[in-house]
Amino acid sequence: MLLQELSWPEVGNLSRDLPVLVPVAAIEQHGHHLPIFVDSMLLGEIVRRVNETMGQRTLVAPLMWLGNSHHHMDFQGTMSASPRVYLDLLNDMAENLLMHGFRRIVFLNGHGGNTIPGRQATFELRQRHRDRHDLLLLFATYWDSAKPNEGRSDLVQTQMGHACEFETSMMMRLAPQLVKKDVTQLEEVRPGFAFEPAYRGWTTKDRTVPGHIGNPRHATADKGEYLFQTFSAGVVKMLEQVIAWDGKSWEMA
After folding, report:
1. Nearest partner of 150 among 211, 231, 208, 32, judged by Cα
2. Burial of 250 (0-12, 13-18, 19+ CB in 10 A)
3. Which long-range contacts (CB under 8 A, 24 or more apart) does 175-180 make?
4. What's the distance, Cα to Cα, between the start and end of the chain in Å?
5. pLDDT band at residue 109 using 50, 70 and 90 as cut-offs
6. What is the pTM of this model?
7. What is the DSSP string of 192-213?
């Protein structure tokens, strides 16, 4: 069920063990062929499908489109919250829900740049509420919820990139009119991370000139539908585990 469609008394009557799903994404460049709202659009569709499946068993908050995207700021149209501001936004959203009594909070992420601050925010929340053992605080990225290559052999990439085969396929399925170019003409970009296993500070322009990372020329709408189904099912499976949690232990049910 959608939080924005409920009155406050209706929210007040909900079980406090109901999982609250908080979608977080971004608005940033996605190469020459995709619009800047890709992350939010794709996550929004994942959440829509999850909500249809879960119904009254999960409370879904409105999607937050402002993410941590400073590494994309060299490209026009990107809008970003700085890391500390973004951390505080996530902390405050969770604290609001905790104040209202909810105990199972799941941030569902649709942008890679949110991962590190999102995990840090979740860590900070737990430290502030360290005396409570009835809280389940999770930060999850939707494409980590499933392994799509195991069910389909024609996927060229083995993981999510940026404006890549996966994201381009999903946009072809969701809003093909917004795919700006003939993707079969796009070259593969595989910059990797120099100096691994050390982590090197980087901006997106260090790694890609056109803005995409991966191999979008292999994208199809059919692959996009498969990816939507696979990732949505993975998120549903995770939420079933959240529902089944016994409310106190470290392990899953």
Report:
1. 231
2. exposed
3. 175/41, 176/221, 178/34, 178/35, 179/33, 179/34, 180/32, 180/33, 180/34, 180/35
4. 24
5. very high
6. 0.96
7. --TTTTS-----HHHH-SSS-B
Could you tell me if 61 and 3 are in contact, meaning their C-beta atoms sit under 8 angstroms apart?
Answer: yes
Q: What is the CA radius of gyration of the chain?
A: 19
In contact, 109 and 140? CB cutoff 8 Å: yes
Residue range 195-221, pLDDT digits in tens: 999 999 999 999 999 999 999 999 999
Place of tokens 């929340």: 125
For residue 59, the number of C-alpha atoms closer than 13 Å in the C-beta half-sphere is: 21
- Tell me which residue has tokens 């737990």: 126
Q: Where are the domains of the chain?
A: 3-244
Q: Is the pLDDT of residue 171 over 70?
A: yes
Domain 3-244 - what CATH class? alpha beta
Strand order in the sheet with 136-141: 59-60, 19-24, 104-109, 136-141
- Cis peptide leading into residue 62 (ω within 30°): no
pLDDT of residue 192: 82
pLDDT band at 193 (very low <50, low <70, confident <90, very high): confident
